[in-house]
Amino acid sequence: MTMAVTLTDQDKLTLRTAAYGAVSLLAAAGAAGSPHRIATEGSIALASATGPIGHVLAAKTRDIKLNGKSVAELADHVLPALTAAMSLLRKQDPAEADNFRNTVNVAVAAATRTHQGRPSPTVAEMVRKITGALEAANGGAPSRAAAGQDRPELQQVLQEIVDSGFTGVTLRVRDERGEWAGSAGVRRLGHSAEPPVNGHVRIGSNTKTFTATVVLQLVGEGKLGLDDPVDDYLPEFGLDRRITVRMLLQHTSGVFNFTGEYYDDGTVVPGIVWSGQEWVDNRFRPYRPEELVRLALSKPARFEPGTDWSYSNTNYVLARLLVEKVTGRSLAEEMHRLILGPLGLSGTVVPDTSPELPEPHAHAYYRYEEAGREETVDVTRQNPSWISTGGDMISTTQDLQTFISALMGGRLLPAHLLAEMCTPEPKAGYGLGVFVQETACGGTVITHNGGIAGHGALMYSTPDGSRTLTAALNYVDDVTMSLAEAFQKATRRLVDEVFCGGRAGSAQ
């Protein structure tokens, strides 16, 4: 048979691993239901493929080693293989790349039809991840099927955000109309390609929600108590005995913010260097979390523990150290055990000191003046240990959607701890790692947003997890944070459109 593409034996193995691996991933995700039937139906669909792809997939699959792997292990193995398969086919023959994608999508549809009614949340999430991996080789631009439906009103909002000064933006919405993903702007200055719809982004303070969830899961396991003094676990810092675990998560400890404090009277007390040319020149410098905490504790507390509210990144670095002390494992390991593994969040990274950002991704920039001349530097690669658990994590809009939906849907925390998380203090409406906010049309959203040197991420959900908005932004940051107002306006515009139908003040 004459093939339209030239494939090495390794290429063929990649195609088979990707296709049959996708079916195996769905079978593992549906293990509580009928995994054998899922695998059978999906494999039958793959065997019916035509053309060169059918020729490759019809070959024996004994060289594929996928048995006995967990959902997370399979996701780590299969999803990159799907992207690699699409990439190698697209370089040779785009028609065969489309054939392969359609073949896998048919197999996925056949496999998920084996469930009674709707697929389980885990199976549905794996379907979304498989679709995203297939599209990643095409720059993250979703096919019409992946996008779910045309949403011109959402695409218009994205363009408005770009027009306000952002380099690029990607958005993912899930609501009663299904799931939609889109992008606008550019992924890199001087280039025309749009940001990848499911690209990686530094999520900034969204890290706090992940970290708070881990702490609350450990509370649920009985390893610590919300109202325990933190000093019981971290005596080496000499913390005020009145500071509790709850106060760390809710920003009511009064501990100085190591990135600096800004007081109502205009007084500024600096912390570490995190802006300007000095930061740009030293952006690969490593910090240890203990170093950040000790710097903070060398400064006066902002207020007596439990008497006020003030956002402090130090609280969450202490939370990280608390997790590591009570478990004997790194936060990254605990995050994987408790959240990333169970939810299959293969695009989410706890980087510690690594400067790398996985592909695909949009680029982040920082602008400063030197000798009267404006300089703009690509700061996509940086050592995020300067912010640590205050905002160092990497994720995708799809993983953020999965996480916040699972969290609010009760899949990560028992009901009483989820209620604690979503009970806000009165000054700022902050719960335990989340903000609880009212929309302009009278509804409630659970949220956290974050920004870090040219990258930003939004994460919103209804309290039951049924409607979500996640977004990633890339932009040119600067010492004056000149896009801060535009960032807030963009956020309000998106929330209004998604949670109020674009009609502020109407019933949700």
TrEMBL record:
<dbReference type="InterPro" id="IPR001466">
    <property type="entry name" value="Beta-lactam-related"/>
</dbReference>
<dbReference type="Pfam" id="PF00144">
    <property type="entry name" value="Beta-lactamase"/>
</dbReference>
<keyword id="KW-0645">Protease</keyword>
<keyword id="KW-0121">Carboxypeptidase</keyword>
<dbReference type="GO" id="GO:0009002">
    <property type="term" value="F:serine-type D-Ala-D-Ala carboxypeptidase activity"/>
</dbReference>
<dbReference type="InterPro" id="IPR050491">
    <property type="entry name" value="AmpC-like"/>
</dbReference>
<protein>
    <submittedName>
        <fullName>D-alanyl-D-alanine carboxypeptidase</fullName>
        <ecNumber>3.4.16.4</ecNumber>
    </submittedName>
</protein>
<keyword id="KW-0378">Hydrolase</keyword>
<feature type="domain" description="Beta-lactamase-related">
    <location>
        <begin position="155"/>
        <end position="475"/>
    </location>
</feature>
<dbReference type="InterPro" id="IPR012338">
    <property type="entry name" value="Beta-lactam/transpept-like"/>
</dbReference>
